[in-house]
Amino acid sequence: MTRMVTKKHLNSNGILFGGQLMKWMDETSFIAATRYSRKKMVTYSVDKIEFKIPIYAGAFLEITSTVKENTGVKLRVYTKIVMEDMYEDNLRIAAESWFTFVCLNENGLPQRIKYYTGQE
Questions:
Q1: pLDDT tens by residue, 6-65
Q2: What is the per-residue DSSP string for 11-35?
Q3: pLDDT, tens only, 70-109
Q4: First and final CA of the chain: distance in angstroms?
Q5: Which of 11, 30, 61, 74 has the most CB atoms less than 10 A away?
Q6: Phi and psi for 7 in degrees, rounded to 5?
Q7: Neighbours of 39 (CB within 10 A)
């Protein structure tokens, strides 16, 4: 997922709200988990989010999430934010974290995850 940071995303210090970045990371992680399982997934936990550099208005953010582990009921998803300056060819890792998702059945109870073979 690619996002452009605008003034509406900034806090009073002129940098991207951490909560906004967390929302985008959770959304992208959710998409990766759902594509992997093709089941109902919910966020179970988020490991330490590392905000490595400040993000200002005008930055392009490439948010990527990859399922790295299937423990049966839970998926571990690694999510990374790469920041690109709008007018420079300069890529830097801005943030990264691990998200854990749980697969739920139609009754909202945990269920086992099988690898969806239609996914690469």
A1: 999 999 999 999 999 999 999 999 999 999 999 999 999 999 999 999 999 999 999 999
A2: -TTSSB-HHHHHHHHHHHHHHHHHH
A3: 999 999 999 999 999 989 889 999 999 999 999 999 999 9
A4: 17
A5: 61
A6: -60, -30
A7: 17
Per 3-state DSSP, what percentage of the chain is helix, strand, and coil (rounded to 5)? 20, 40, 40
- Its pTM stands at 0.90
Q: Which domains does the chain have, with CATH numbers?
A: 2-104 (3.10.129.10)
Residues in the chain: 120
Under a CB-based contact definition with an 8 Å cutoff, are residues 40 and 109 in contact? no
Q: In a 10 Å sphere around its CB, with 0-12 CB exposed, 13-18 middle and 19+ buried, how is residue 43 labelled?
A: middle
